[in-house]
Amino acid sequence: MRMRNGRWKISKRKAMTYIFYGKMKNLKSQHWFLLLRSLKVDVSVVTYNSGKTLDKCLNSIEKYVPVNRLLIGDGGSTDNTLKIARDHGAKIYLFRGEENKIGRIRYKLAELAETDWLLYVDSDVYLYQTFWPRVSRYVMEGVGMIMAAQDGHPSPLQKYFEWRNRKFGFITFSNTLVPRAVLLKVKELLNTHTGEDAIYGKRILEMGLKIVRIYEHLSFHDKDIQEFNLAFRRWGADLRTKKDVMELVKTILRHFRNTVLYTVEEQTLEGVPILLSQCFELLKGYLILK
């Protein structure tokens, strides 16, 4: 590394050495930002009638992430989602019928990606300026997943989410950086609609790779309680498709156990009615009840 014309220069070979062997932390901040600019990533966004949030989501990505290509996997939007994606110059891939599963779309977008690392951002997530510098510093061998905590709308479940994160950690694909080659080994995603983040997290731990969780809030998740409940119903429907009644029972019991532990340890009933209703949403999804 040397200075030329008043600016620091670093070879690509040296940059990749720092990235993969974790020596970036020893660089001065001005050198660090030079390395960040040398690492570009494909960014994958799964959409379905995401018109209300997508423009703001993509603006934050373009502003704060060194994007190589923007990949959109759409599950059949009927609003202005695809127009917004085209306006941002995204490459759009359509998934219909049996192809329209979130896990499958994430996997297929990884197949279509070009970069060694791939960033997943949900269509209702807005990245903060601090996101990329904080997340990308963990790009190195031995890491299988890097994600950050998120802000959200004021909610009766806020205290529960904070408790759950402290007790169990968190797992998400909503603002997550992964090594593409590793994700392509997890073929279970091809037949998964929801819960794909937990499946991937379990598999990479089995591979001996690390999950990096950053508890600093580095993005905003624009999702309300009603949308969280719908996610539980979709989860139940996915389990029905797999004819996995035992997993349904285990999921409901685990969610109920967490609700009880939260109530006891935090000595509060805040959010408990909503948490219990989510057990019923799972069951509704499995039984296809409206």
In short:
47% of the residues lie in helices and 21% in strands. The chain is an alpha/beta fold.
Provide structural commentary:
It is a single chain. By secondary structure, this protein is α/β, with parallel strands linked by helices. Helix content is 47%, strand content 21%. The chain has 12 helices and 10 strands. The strands form 2 sheets. It has an 8-stranded mixed β-sheet with strand order 5-4-3-6-9-8-10-7, with helices on both faces. The chain has a two-stranded antiparallel ribbon with strand order 1-2. The radius of gyration is 20 Å and the shape is globular. Residues 1-10, 16-21 and 23-37 have low confidence and may be disordered.
End-to-end Cα distance: 62 Å
Strand-residue proportion: 15-25%
CATH topology of the largest domain: Spore Coat Polysaccharide Biosynthesis Protein SpsA, Chain A
Average pLDDT rating: 85
**Structural class by SSE content:** alpha/beta
